[in-house]
Amino acid sequence: MTNFFSYEASENVFKLFGLTHIVSIVLVFVFIFVLVVFRDKIRNSPKEKVIRYIFAITCILIEMSLYPWYLLNGETRLSMVLPLDLCGFIIYVGAIAMLTKKYSLFEVGWFWSFGTWLAIFFNPHPYSIDRFRFYQYMINHALMFGMYVYMFAVLKFRPTINSFKKSILVLVVISPFMYVFNTIIDGNFFLLNNSDGAPVEFVANMSGLPYTLFAVFMGILILSIGNIHYLFRGKVNERSS
Fold this sequence. Notes:
The chain is mainly α. The protein has helices at 19-37, 39-44, 48-64, 66-72, 78-81, 86-100, 103-112, 116-121, 132-153, 161-185, 208-225.
């Protein structure tokens, strides 16, 4: 059991698009599919609020379990243990939106959540099924995207063009501050300072200002992917009350 929580990967190294990875991806798709199929039953259930609260709190707990894991393995660097990573941001925004039914948080996080699929398809970690970090990572990202699907499908929150603009604005405002903070503590929160941990191999070993501009561009591109559905319909209506 001690090895299960180890910081070191075992000989059973995770392989991109190996059997373990493919099964994981399929399970995530099944989870999202079930959530969408049963959206009406969940919405009309007298337990909807309980389900939503359990969902949000579970997401927070799974995200927070990463930090005791760091400390258990002797990792105390601020650049690692502070809860300022990009996925954490998406989770906390989504969880608060779930708990409070705050549409203004959903409309920002909705577009960011599409980056979850990059993390799922291009998992950068070596940990496989015999390590805690594998389950924490995959479940964390599945639930992360699931929260926003829940708000879209069950709560009927609908993002708008203005939501898209707000998401980009938040990214542009946060990035310079995060870049400076990363430089001070030698960190890489939001993957802005170098490509270490980035879930795509073609940016490997990139760093410096060119990489930062590339990272911001990729962020905007990912936000845009969440906006593609607007291309296939006419006038975009604001979310009805």
